[in-house]
Amino acid sequence: MNQKHFFLAAGATALLLGSGIWLSMHRSGGQSNLDGGRVFADLKPALGEVDEIRFSKGDGSRTTLHKNADGWVVVERQYPADAARVRELALALANLKVIERKTSDPANYAKIGVEKPDSPTAGSTLVEIQAGKKTWSLIVGKGADGRAVYIRKPDEAASSLAQPFIAPDPDQKRWIDRLLTDIPGAEVHDIAVRMENGPAYLLTRAKRADPALTLSPIPKGRSPVSAMALNGQADALGALNFDDVRAAPAPAPADIATYRTFDGQVIEFAGHRDGEKTYVAIAAHRDPTLAAQFPNPATPDKAATPAPAEPTPADKTVEKLVARAHGLEFEIPAYKYDAIFKKQEDLLEKPPAKKKP
Known about the structure:
The structure is a single chain. By secondary structure, the protein is of the alpha+beta class. The chain folds into two domains: 29-174, no CATH class; 179-301 and 311-347, no CATH class. The protein has seven helices and 19 strands. The protein has helices spanning 3-25, 83-95, 109-112, 227-234, 288-293, 317-324, 334-340, and strands at residues 52-56, 62-68, 71-74, 79-80, 97-101, 125-131, 134-144, 148-152, 159-163, 179-181, 188-194, 201-204, 214-216, 240-241, 244-247, 255-261, 265-274, 277-286, 328-332. The strands form three sheets. The protein has a nine-stranded antiparallel β-sheet, covered by helices on one side. It is elongated.
């Protein structure tokens, strides 16, 4: 056996040994038999028909994920769900396998979190996954080292340890699609800012190839900060996620920042602070005239006529916001708020210190 094969064999042995040690830690005396069967044998073939998933706890918290013609929605928030996360959970439930039988004594259920979720102190979560008229139900308890989870079917006494690990969190905020925008800063043509307290200003670049935004107006005797600092305000549209969403209150004085991109997307943020939290309402539309001024760069090979590229999610941000943002306001992280609504003074170099007489 050469050295390479030796180390490969040694690594495989170590992996098997580690798995065995982990599994043995979660076995109890007379309950070491492995079942190996799926928790729901008939769920995987029905995944394409799943149209609702519900989580509920004894303290009253609950989340309902419903699939309609437009995709998954968090019913209690009437807002689109994170479809990728919903699919991940549905697949995990369909693939859930028992690796060890556990207690059948109700007195011991609470120790592993599989008691009936009917009291505020219960640690369990009831999961219901529905496809048409068929519903699969499961009580999900504590996790085991992030690799497995304790479970029990509501109509069965026996509990089990199962894999893969699942976390059916009934916090509605965990399931909404929290991405607002993900537009590269280089795609921003201009940013017009009107602060509730402070002067208005404009950041702009004349053409796509310009590496940096320019500031106007610039107060007499002052100079703008570095190009990197100015560009940071355009970069604020990259990976802009919100923390929570609620119905917009009555209009009130607000900071206003309007971003316009070279492809004609116009996104206006109206922001305000509420204690330590920061909120924005969003209005968006297309400006065909702006887009016509800055056509996409020609392809290097003018003789070729490639098929038009599919729009990216960033290209369709306005359409997504029009469909989702009306009548709502979004709680965003304070650092993102400060990046969108910078004060003009923050974009200027500090004035030179006055000489003492």
